[in-house]
Amino acid sequence: MKVTILYGSATGNAEHIAKDLASTINESKCTPPTAFRSADVMEMNHFKRKKLMESWVNPPLSTDTGNDDAVEKHALIIVCSTTGNGDAPENAGRFVRYLKKPPPSTLSSLNASLSNSAMPLENVAYAVLGLGDTNYDQFCGSAKLVDKKMKEWGATRAVKLACADEATGLEATVEPWLEGVLGGLERACKGGDEEEKKGDEEEKKEENGNTEKQMENLAVSDKDNVVAKNEDDTKTDIPPSTTPSTETTAASSSTTESTASTPTSGPVKSSTPLYILYGSATGNAEHIAKDLCSTYESYLKNPAFQGFFPSVVCCELNQYKKKCLDQWSQKQDGNAKHGVIIVSSTTGNADAPENADRFIRWMKRKATEPTQPFQHCAYAVLGLGDTNYDVFCAVGKAIDKRLEQLGGTRAIKAALADEATGLEETVEPWVGQVIGKLAQVCEGKQAAGNESAKPDIVEPSVASPATGVVPTAASVPKKLKEQSSSSSSVEEKKMDIEEMTASIATTPGSVGVSTIRKLLSIPTNSSLPTVQHSSLPTMVSSLSSCELINDETRRSRGDSIADNMTVSSGSSGFLYTAAKPYESRVMGARYLTATDKESAKKVANEILGEDYDEDDDKIIQAMKVYDEHFPLSSTTSGAESNEKLQYDKNGKRVIEMTLSLPDDFTLEYEPGDSVGLIVPNTPQSTGFMLSMLERNHGILPSQKISVDAAHPITVKEAIQSTIDLCSPMKKKRLFLLSMYATDPEEEQALRLVSSASNGKEGQEVDLFQSYVEDQCRTVVDILKEFPSCQSITLEGLLGCLPAIPPRYYSVCSSPLHDRQSGEDDFHLKVAFSVVDYLTPSLPEDVSSGRRMGGLATRRLECVCSPFLSSQASMSVSKPTVQIFPKPTHEFRLPPNMSTPLILIGPGTGIAPFIGFLSHRQAQMASLESTEAAEMTSEGTWRGGYELDPNELAISKGDARGLNLAVDYMSKHQQVGEIDLFFGCRHSDHDYLYQQELEKFKADGILTNLYAAFSRDDKEKKMYVQTFMKNDTQCGKRLVEMIMEKQASVYICGDGNVMGRDVQEAIVSLLAKHFCDEDKCKDVEEGRVRAMAHVDQMKTFGRFVLDIWS
Predict the structure, then answer these.
(1) CA atoms within 13 A on the CB side of 810
(2) Is the dihedral of CA 1045, 351, 561, 669 positive or negative?
(3) Cα separation values, 206 from 185, 195, 214, 362, Å
(4) Which candidate, 162, 226, 166, 233, places its Cα nearest to that of 12?
(5) Which pTM does this prediction carry?
(6) Distance between CA 166 and CA 168 in Å, rounded?
(7) Sign of the CA dihedral 107, 112, 117, 121?
(8) pLDDT grade, residue 724 (50/70/90)?
(9) Which residues, in sequence order, are CB contacts of 471 under 8 Å at separation 6+?
(10) Better-predicted residue by pLDDT, 1079 or 52
(11) Which of 401, 95, 450 is nearest to 222 (CA)?
């Protein structure tokens, strides 16, 4: 038997499914085996060219049936996606339009010999698979229409229509459908109609059930399920682990005897661990989850601790099936429940992190709900998000709501933390109470969601990360000393506690304490304010064990420390991840700003040389050269305005860097994607830490260390590449450091800075803000200014600090454009600003007003010096950087080239749009060559010259897995207009990609180019958003593009101010338009309509943001 497979595809998914199925049939690999032995696969629009309708009006020929007389009908499979609002893909449009017509009353147009009563497709049995996205209203609209019309035209439905949802994962629907479609189709072709009747009945039942379910959902409000991010909850903590008194012990004994003879509502201990799962993109959710895990583990090490959960499991959300699901499905004794805590961030516009996407898809599936997998679980959810994005904490909210629908019991309201205003405001109170409240609900002592019952509060100083007791000035160094002597053969520089403490400066007048006093206006003869335990952070260490080992110690170990501490992307499906990045070579670099190149030449010629290697001393020297050449302020007072202008320009340096990609296509990207860079700590900070450890604890940089029994690495590798030494300290880290201080006043000062109160009641100074955040003080700064904290152990250091987060940069190139350019090497380009600035100067702070640089960008500027100075030659060894892809799902060019675009990208926000425009230019070139190739193949070419194969810029075979938009290229393709808005400070300095943008406009890729410069006019600053509102013609054009031409809007750049202001400007322009058109009564109503229109655009993916704080 033969089957015809038609596909309508916009992004390639439908095409791949159809072709994979055809290949399986043609290669006789069907499971289970079927009677189908061959398959023809083609675009739906080719139905006329292949004369399918003419062949279908007659019963199948013996050549199509394999001489099987039982076969009565032609077999047809249709796989069709839906684009936009129910639209068919372009390669399916003609077929869909044909079916939309009423079935012909006679078949004279097809076969005059047939009776007039016959239906056109009565000799066809069919099955339809639809691909769609429930984020759009018309879910699988094209497939539903085709399925309905095929039946109206007389075809026999062999298998019920299947609709796969890209939002929750296509495979959940596609795989079961593929397993059954051939069997159902075979039965229908041989005259069986029971499946069709059964399918119709099930379809009606499902429709009725869905209607009832929708009515129920409409009646349920979830407003009470989410706590506002600034809501004040009563702060409680994990049940106490302090040693019980005699009375308490006696009472406990009495209670135990009583409960032995009396049935209880729940067990004393859970039979399963506490489960803490996280979905993390940048590392914040992972760190919070691991901190919480480590905190509970530290309490478990205290023999006096009587916790409900006997252990704790911490893992990625995508590991739910492997590590959690079997246990969750088992009922515990009595009323007890399993405890589940989920911490998840939201990326992009409502996207789940890569290490949580499978869990989200599983959770959303219709098939999951009937199983009620969380019916034996109590749960708590913490969502991390950014209010710069419109869809705030969407993943956290969705998890919280869905777990309840899946049978879970909410133990505490979901907390939503805002990165734009500071995660700590929400995270700290939630973390302080979540385990205690969850334990009470799991044990059956507290009703779900009842927050009136307060668990006993644990003083934060009760337990340390490793021992469960407060580390003292003596105990911490002594512990490490014992560890070192038992596990390391290095006996040098050992000293007892008194000698070690004496080697650390602990003068009462240390710089840190003195600065805190000045900031709070506290004289030296007065004591620092007392800090209440309730105002201190509760989270502590994120690592549990650290072991110094001998070279002779060889054992089987797991992954390296880097795998445990970096942001995990292991479930993403990509070969290269944050844990296992690709080592890319720097192939080129250039300044995009009008930056003087003399310093780059000096670094390239005098410091790096041709035999360049990343030597720490060379990096330090190179940074000094750049600092000297680009001063940010005058060493004398009264600088002239021209000098200040130059200082401003010195601090604004933007670089475009070209990075190599593997030539086996194992690292691919599309315009709109980002790339993550793994960077080490600065040589200065690494050197300080290594020197401190060697001086105070006798630990050498070359010694081997194993963390959590992982594969051994050197101490230098652990300090340099795993823990973050260069980011501003967080309150919880400061508090942990204070526990290692040997000087009481330094300990008190650090507790004060890390507390919520920050000092005296009514104190106007935000101590943490002014001392730490404004001055960007790192752990190295704190250890220098509070030297008695240098007694911290290696284990304490690794446990105190988070991993180095990757740095993400938008890709500003197009793989299609690069391939068309004939370049042999595989590469991508990124653009970034060199972070270089001065902190605010404060008279009370002697260390204020200092120069700060970006960890990644300052180093990259140094290593790129040969390219920046144009001194690089082929013989120069190229520096390397570690990278991994970070794809986006939202920030993509529309699948239809005819969609007009409005691109808004001030500063480095222009970077992805350069990739967009390059890609569009290449698409247009491909469109022309594809058109010519199609005309040639059809014999319609009437040109007067021969085609050179090299002129055909791209073909489907050359695509190599990249989405090159070949699905929708046709000779009738129209290309939409593109307007671009760019903004910067100075037109003569940081007008990034000026020449490229002007060429795009001259070549017709760009329709309009608008540029705003905020520092050119000293009297009036002009930003992109003010340009939109003040320029009448520009405003009219924006409204026309959005309202009449249905343009898609893309915004990229700094979200703190620009993102919101640009949206506000667009809303204002649309509101004015509605008022001018008399579509509303007043300005307020116009504004409401404008905001609703923008929201609708966002819903349909026509208003997309990629912004950062």
Answers:
(1) 26
(2) negative
(3) 22, 16, 12, 20
(4) 166
(5) 0.66
(6) 5
(7) negative
(8) very high
(9) 464, 739, 740, 796
(10) 52
(11) 401
The 10 Å Cβ neighbour count of residue 944 is: 5
On average, the pLDDT of the chain sits at: 78
Closest by Cα among 401, 361, 19, 362 to 166: 361
Residue 182, CA distances (Å) to 34, 44, 60, 128, 178 in order = 7, 19, 17, 12, 7
Closest CA to 599 of 878, 864, 880, 986: 864
Type of residue at 882: Q
Which stretch of DSSP H or E encloses residue 868?
Answer: helix 865-868
**Is omega for the bond preceding 32 within 30 degrees of 0, making it cis?**
yes
Structure-token pair, residue 75: 């077999």
Phi/psi at 1099 (5° precision): -60, -40
Classified as helix, coil or strand, 706 is strand
pLDDT of residue 935: 41
Structure tokens at 335: 């009323």
Beta-bridge partner residues of 162: 129
Dihedral over alpha carbons 463, 804, 349, 994 (to 10 degrees):
150
Residue 927, H or E segment: helix 911-937
The answer to whether the CB of 737 falls within 8 A of the CB of 718 is: no
Task: Identify which of 294, 267, 265, 290 has the alpha carbon closest to the alpha carbon of residue 278.
Answer: 290
Supply the pLDDT for residue 452.
37
Nearest one of 970, 493, 516 to 758, comparing CA atoms: 516
Q: Which residues contact 563 (CB under 8 A, 6 or more apart)?
A: 579, 580, 710
**Angle at the Cα of 535 from the Cα atoms of 534 and 541, rounded to 5 degrees:** 90
Task: Give me the helix-helix angle, 284-300 and 424-443, nearest 10°.
Answer: 50
Other beta carbons within 10 Å of 163: 19
Q: Is the pLDDT score of 1068 beyond 90?
A: yes
Residue 796 pLDDT more than 80? yes
Amino acid in position 667: L
- CB under 8 Å to 787, separation ≥6 — which residues? 504, 505, 506, 510, 746
Higher per-residue pLDDT: 682 or 120: 682
Q: What is the DSSP letter of 560?
A: B
Do the beta carbons of residue 908 and residue 1053 sit within 8 Å?
A: yes
Structure tokens at 853: 């640089």
Burial class of residue 451 in the structure, from the number of CB atoms within 10 Å of its CB (0-12 exposed, 13-18 middle, 19+ buried): middle
Residue 355 to residue 574: CA distance in whole angstroms: 11
Q: Which of 75-89, 219-233, 927-941 has the lowest mean pLDDT?
A: 219-233
Radius of gyration of the chain (CA): 33
C-alpha to C-alpha distances, 1085 to 1062, 1074, 1077, nearest whole angstrom: 20, 9, 13
Give the pLDDT band (50/70/90) at residue 868.
Answer: very high
Share of the chain above pLDDT 70, in %: 74
What is residue 664's three-state secondary structure? coil
8-state DSSP, 743: S
723 contacts 804 by C-beta, under 8 angstroms: yes
DSSP 1056: I
Owner of token pair 């129910």:
86
Distances (CA, A) of 915 to 12, 820, 831, 889, 980: 21, 14, 11, 16, 13
524-576 pLDDT, tens digit each: 888 888 888 778 876 555 544 567 776 545 443 333 333 333 333 333 445 78
Residue spans of alpha helices (H) in 612-667: 616-629, 641-650
Give buried/exposed letters for 232-251 (b at 16+ CB in 10 A, else e).
ebebbbbbbbeeeeeeeeee
Strand duo 654-660 + 674-678: pairing: unpaired
Termini Cα distance of the chain:
60
d(CA 7, CA 18): 6
Backbone angles phi, psi at 124, to 5 degrees: -120, 135
CB 66 within 8 A of CB 1: yes
Between 956 and 934, name the one with better pLDDT. Answer: 934
